Known about the structure:
- The protein is mostly helical.
- It has one domain (30-152): Orthogonal Bundle (Arc Repressor Mutant, subunit A).
- The protein is 66% helix and 8% strand.
- It has six helices and three strands.
- The protein has helices spanning 10-38, 42-52, 61-68, 72-84, 106-126, 133-152, and strands at residues 58-60, 88-92, 100-104.
- A three-stranded antiparallel beta sheet has the order 1-3-2.
- A hairpin with a 7-residue loop joins β2 and β3.
- α1 (10-38) packs across α5 (106-126).
- The longest helix has 29 residues, at 10-38.
- The protein starts with 9 loop residues before the first helix and ends with a helix.
- The model has no long low-confidence stretch (mean pLDDT 94).
Amino acid sequence: MNDETQWLSPREQRSWRAFIRLNQKLTARLGSELQSNAKLSGPDFAILVALTDEPAGRLRFQELAKAIEFEQSRLSHQIGRMIKRGLVAREECAEDGRGAFVTITAQGRETIEAAAPKHVAAVRRLVLDAVSPEEFDTLGDLAERIIKHLDETAP
């Protein structure tokens, strides 16, 4: 073992493991509910949300990959599956001829609009009902700070 390793203290380890377990459990639970309520996977939902956040309903592949933290190859496979289901379409980029856009379809919009109310209800039931508004604000502040730190830290 490396003697220079700064191991987590029992307090740090408890918090870290609780955070990881929360992430795993919440992701699995929300994914299960999306699947049963809307026949969407977590990645399907993340992509549709990212596209609906854009006024034009489309993003370049690279922008979408960055927005949802997917590697290019994983995103290509996911988009292929979603194209087959009619949720998104691929459009060539007329400006430069090199890139491509992922565009939400009318069916994709209908699907996300039907899924969103049940998803929000699940988020309220599983998370917001367990904490105070102030605690939820603190959670958001901490998450934003860690995300900023990750973005500033080289991989």
